[in-house]
Write a structure and sequence with these properties.
Blueprint: E1 2-8, E2 11-16, E3 27-35, H1 38-46, E4 60-68, E5 80-83, E6 86-87, H2 93-96, E7 107-108, E8 120-123, H3 125-130, E9 133-135, H4 142-160, E10 168-172, H5 176-187, E11 192-197, E12 213-216, H6 222-229, E13 235-240, H7 245-254, E14 255-263, H8 278-284, E15 287-290, H9 296-307, E16 317-322, H10 326-335, E17 340-344
Parallel strand pairs: 10-11, 10-13, 11-12, 13-14, 14-15, 16-17
Antiparallel strand pairs: 1-2, 3-4, 3-8, 3-17, 4-5, 5-9, 6-7
Helix pairs in contact: 4-5, 4-9
């Protein structure tokens, strides 16, 4: 099979590798689309402690079942599917306590396991048993299905941040993740959705119907404008949907008393220190949390939302590249000229 290998930092090479072989209880997926996530870009530029190079990246995977191990009755050859990325162990402290999202021994496609920038992906028996292989309806394209993983992560984050009816929600970051958060906040009946973005021209490529106000951070006093929009109160929920230390710091000044802040975008390991005014947390009783990843149930809920058209993501896939042009695709994704970029096999 053809696969794109990150051989070293900022060096992707497409090579021929042996096809994965079916194991007991496993499923082999023929990849149709694997989208480029912001975390893939961070690994490409900075590496990751859970990724040992050389390695196949990619965890936003959609395709069809190529072959299944005997006895895996729920999975059929040619089924159209999307993958949940993370396989949990079921044995560690957190798994036993009912919190598998914190599994100490988890493995994820594109991290410890070979990812989706390849013609085929092997889903081990444990992954198949956990329900990582989810069927997608014919009404959803493969490109849309890859974003079900992003939507699933956003779903979990907004549940943890208790986004609900009547809330004012500020999303910092106008990339595809930020737009999904805006649309999901509206689906969760937020009263006002404000997006903070440094380059509002980028937003012209997609529907903005879920956004009540755009605040351009390069030309506006963000705190002053958010306070003005909320009559001096601030936001009930602030979600930092970009990999920016300054955005994380800024989030505290935008939150109302009793507000919730979610650091949704991770920072590179050697650039992860931020400075905050702890008195804002103390006197305003602000809660700060992180959110990372999703469960198979989150992914099934995301696919169901897309199937019912409760939330659209199709317009977010603005550019596609073949596997052979993956390095060019990563370089383009870095420019932020488009929205979401996908590798089509």
């Amino acid at each position: 099979m053809k696969a794109a290998i990150l051989e070293e930092i900022e060096h992707l090479v497409v090579k021929e590798l042996p096809d994965p072989q079916l194991e007991e209880g496993s499923v082999i997926i023929k990849v149709k689309v694997c989208s480029i996530c912001g975390s893939d870009l961070r690994i490409y530029h900075h590496g990751h402690p859970r990724v040992k190079l050389p390695h196949i990246l990619g965890h936003e995977i959609a395709g069809e079942i190529e072959s299944v191990s005997e006895g895996k009755g729920s999975h059929k050859v040619n089924d159209r599917i999307a993958l949940t990325p993370r396989i949990t162990c079921g044995k560690c402290y957190y798994c036993r306590e009912g919190h598998p999202i914190y599994c100490l021994n988890s493995q994820s496609f594109g991290y410890q396991l070979p990812g989706g920038y390849a013609e085929y992906v092997l889903v081990p028996r444990r992954g198949a048993e956990l329900g990582l292989v989810n069927r997608i309806p014919d009404t959803i394209s493969y490109e849309e299905a890859t974003l079900s993983e992003t939507l699933a992560c956003c779903l979990r984050a907004q549940k943890e941040s208790r986004v609900s009816s009547g809330n004012t929600v500020v999303i910092i970051g106008g990339g595809p993740v930020g737009i999904i958060h805006c649309r999901l906040a509206k689906a969760n009946q937020a009263r006002m959705v404000i997006i903070v973005e440094r380059d509002s021209k980028r937003l012209s490529q997609v529907s903005l119907s879920a956004i009540d106000k755009i605040v351009e951070s390069t030309t506006s006093e963000v705190e002053e404008e958010v306070l003005d929009l909320t009559k001096g109160v601030g936001a009930d929920v602030v979600i930092v949907a970009c990999s920016s230390a300054s955005a994380q710091e800024q989030a505290l000044s935008l939150a109302a008393k009793g507000g919730r802040i979610n650091f949704f975008g991770g920072l590179p390991a050697h650039q992860s220190r931020i400075a905050i005014d702890s008195n804002l947390i103390h006197y305003r009783e602000i809660s700060i949390q992180g959110s990372h990843g999703s469960t198979p149930d989150d992914n099934k809920e995301a696919l169901d939302m897309l199937a019912q058209r409760l939330l659209d993501v199709g317009d977010l896939i603005t550019h596609t590249f073949p596997l052979e042009a993956i390095e060019k695709a990563f370089q383009f994704a870095d420019t932020r000229e488009g929205m979401h970029t996908s590798i089509v096999l």
